[in-house]
C-alpha cells in the first residue's frame, strides 16, 4: 500500500467551514488503496479560532473516511498583520519538528512515506516539506492553489523588490525546479509555472464531489429571486460591488434577495454598507456537508472577485464548480478565463468586476430569462461538471500520476 503525506495548513474536513480539497483528494486516494496522512492547522482560517487544541496541547489525531488526519497547533491571528506571518512560521516549525524525525525513522523501519505532497498558498510550509523530502530522499509533489508571491503583488500591493517578496520568489523557484510534479488548479497557471522552472506539470482543477453535489431541480417560480454568495468576505471578493448592485436593484424595485453566507475580515464593514437594504442578509459560514442544501435553495449562485491581473488566469473557484454540478445558473464578475467560460458555455450571466450597474443589469437579465432557458443553462453546467471538473475524475487522474512517480 503506497503511503502519502499530504500537507496544507488550511485543509478542513467537511464538518468545518472552508475548503475541503485536501480531504476530498485524500478520501479518493484512500479508495484507490493509498495510506494517506494529512497534516493541517487546527486554527480554522474561516472562523479564526481553534477547533480542538488549547495550548499546551500541540496536536490531535482523528481518522475521517479512513484518512489519518493530524491537527497541529499554530499561533493565532485575527488580521493580516505580523501575527499572520508568525502563524505561518509556527506551522513550518511544527512540521519540521514532527515530520523530519518521523521520515528519518520511517526510512529505517520501512514506514516512511512514498511521497510528500504539499499544497500552497503557504509557500514556507511547502518549502519546509520540500527539504524534508530531499533530506529523506522521498519524491516531492507541489500543488499550486494560488500563485505566490504574485498574489501578494497583484492583490496586496507588495513591492516586487521587497525582501519578503524576493525571498518568497526564491522559494517558489526552488519548489518548481525541485518538485517531481507541479499540480496547478487553474489551467492558466500551467504555462506560468513552466516558465518559472517546473519540469512536469498537471492541471487538476478544483471540482465537485458529484455524489454530494448531485443535480437538484430548480426552485419553483417565486418572488423574490434568491441570489446566493457563499464564501470568504475579504478584500479580494469585492462584495461591496455586489451590495452597490443590490442597492441599484432595490431602487429599480426588482424583486431579488441576496444571501451572503460566510465570514472574513470585511464582513462587519459590509454589514454597515448594507444598512437599510432589506433585500440583503448576512449569515454564518456552514460546514461543507451542509452547503449543497444551501445552494439548492437558491435560484442562482454568485461568484465575485476584484479586478486583479492574477485572477484573470490564475483562479479555480470551487463554489463555481459546485454550482455547475448542483445545477444552478451562475452570476460571475471575474474578468478573464472565468467569465469567458460562463459565456462560452452559456451557464449564466457575467459582468465586469467593479461595475455595480453592469452587475445589476446582468442579474435583472437573468431574472427575466424564461425558466426553460435557465433549465438549459443548468443542463449544460451539469454536463461540464461531469466531463471536466468532477472530483471523481480528478482523483482518478491524481492516483495515476502519483503512482507513476513512485514506480520510477
Report what the structure shows.
With 408 residues, the chain is an alpha/beta fold. The chain folds into two domains: 3-207 and 390-406, Rossmann fold; 225-388, Glycogen Phosphorylase B (Rossmann fold), CATH 3.40.50.2000. The chain is built from 14 helices and 16 strands. The chain has helices at 21-31, 82-109, 123-135, 150-154, 163-178, 190-195, 239-251, 267-273, 291-296, 318-326, 337-345, 356-368, 371-389, 391-406; strands spanning 3-7, 35-41, 43-44, 49-50, 59-62, 68-72, 115-119, 140-144, 181-184, 201-203, 225-230, 256-261, 280-283, 300-304, 330-333, 348-350. The strands form three sheets. It has an eight-stranded mixed sheet, sandwiched between helices. Strands 13-12-11-14-15-16 form a six-stranded parallel sheet, sandwiched between helices. Strand 7, helix 3 (123-135) and strand 8 form a beta-alpha-beta unit. The radius of gyration is 21 Å and the shape is globular. The mean pLDDT is 93.
Brief synopsis:
This protein has 408 residues and is of the alpha/beta class. The chain has helices spanning 21-31, 82-109, 123-135, 150-154, 163-178, 190-195, 239-251, 267-273, 291-296, 318-326, 337-345, 356-368, 371-389, 391-406, and strands at 3-7, 35-41, 43-44, 49-50, 59-62, 68-72, 115-119, 140-144, 181-184, 201-203, 225-230, 256-261, 280-283, 300-304, 330-333, 348-350. An eight-stranded mixed sheet has the order 5-6-2-1-7-8-9-10, with helices on both faces. Strands 13-12-11-14-15-16 form a six-stranded parallel sheet, with helices on both faces.
Amino acid at each position: 500500500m503506497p503511503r502519502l503525506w499530504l500537507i496544507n495548513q488550511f485543509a478542513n474536513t467537511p464538518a468545518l467551514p472552508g475548503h475541503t480539497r485536501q480531504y476530498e483528494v485524500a478520501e479518493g486516494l484512500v479508495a484507490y488503496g493509498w495510506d494517506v496522512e494529512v497534516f493541517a492547522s487546527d486554527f480554522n482560517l474561516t472562523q479564526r479560532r481553534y477547533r480542538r487544541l488549547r495550548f499546551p496541547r500541540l496536536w490531535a489525531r482523528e481518522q475521517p473516511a479512513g484518512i489519518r488526519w493530524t491537527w497541529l497547533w499554530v499561533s493565532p491571528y485575527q488580521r493580516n498583520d505580523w501575527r499572520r506571518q508568525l502563524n505561518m512560521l509556527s506551522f513550518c516549525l511544527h512540521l519540521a519538528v514532527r515530520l523530519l524525525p518521523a521520515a528519518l525513522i520511517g526510512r529505517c523501519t520501512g514506514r516512511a512515506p512514498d511521497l510528500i505532497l504539499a499544497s500552497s498558498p503557504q509557500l514556507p510550509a511547502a518549502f519546509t516539506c520540500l527539504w524534508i523530502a530531499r533530506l529523506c530522499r522521498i519524491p516531492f509533489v507541489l500543488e499550486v492553489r494560488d500563485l505566490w508571491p504574485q498574489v501578494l503583488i497583484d492583490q496586496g500591493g507588495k513591492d516586487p523588490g521587497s525582501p519578503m517578496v524576493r525571498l518568497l520568489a526564491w522559494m517558489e523557484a526552488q519548489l518548481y525546479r525541485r518538485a517531481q510534479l507541479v499540480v496547478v488548479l487553474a489551467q492558466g497557471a500551467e504555462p506560468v509555472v513552466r516558465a518559472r522552472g517546473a519540469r512536469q506539470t498537471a492541471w487538476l482543477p478544483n471540482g465537485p464531489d458529484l455524489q454530494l453535489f448531485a443535480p437538484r431541480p430548480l426552485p419553483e417560480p417565486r418572488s423574490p429571486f434568491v441570489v446566493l454568495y457563499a464564501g470568504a468576505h475579504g478584500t479580494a471578493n469585492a462584495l461591496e460591488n455586489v451590495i452597490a448592485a443590490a442597492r441599484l436593484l432595490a431602487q429599480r424595485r426588482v424583486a431579488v434577495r441576496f444571501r451572503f453566507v460566510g465570514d472574513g475580515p470585511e464582513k462587519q464593514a459590509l454589514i454597515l454598507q448594507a444598512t437599510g437594504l432589506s433585500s440583503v442578509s448576512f449569515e454564518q459560514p456552514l460546514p461543507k456537508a451542509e452547503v449543497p442544501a444551501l445552494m439548492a435553495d437558491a435560484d442562482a449562485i454568485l461568484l465575485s472577485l476584484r479586478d486583479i491581473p492574477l485572477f484573470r488566469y490564475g483562479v479555480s473557484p470551487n463554489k463555481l464548480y459546485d454550482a455547475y454540478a448542483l445545477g444552478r445558473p451562475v452570476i460571475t464578475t471575474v474578468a478573464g478565463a472565468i467569465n469567458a467560460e460562463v459565456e462560452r458555455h452559456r451557464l449564466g450571466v457575467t459582468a465586469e468586476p467593479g461595475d455595480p450597474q453592469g452587475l445589476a443589469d446582468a442579474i435583472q437579465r437573468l431574472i427575466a430569462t424564461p425558466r426553460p432557458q435557465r433549465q438549459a443553462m443548468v443542463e449544460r453546467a451539469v454536463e461540464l461538471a461531469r466531463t471536466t471538473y468532477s472530483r471523481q475524475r480528478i482523483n482518478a487522474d491524481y492516483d495515476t500520476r502519483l503512482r507513476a512517480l513512485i514506480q520510477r
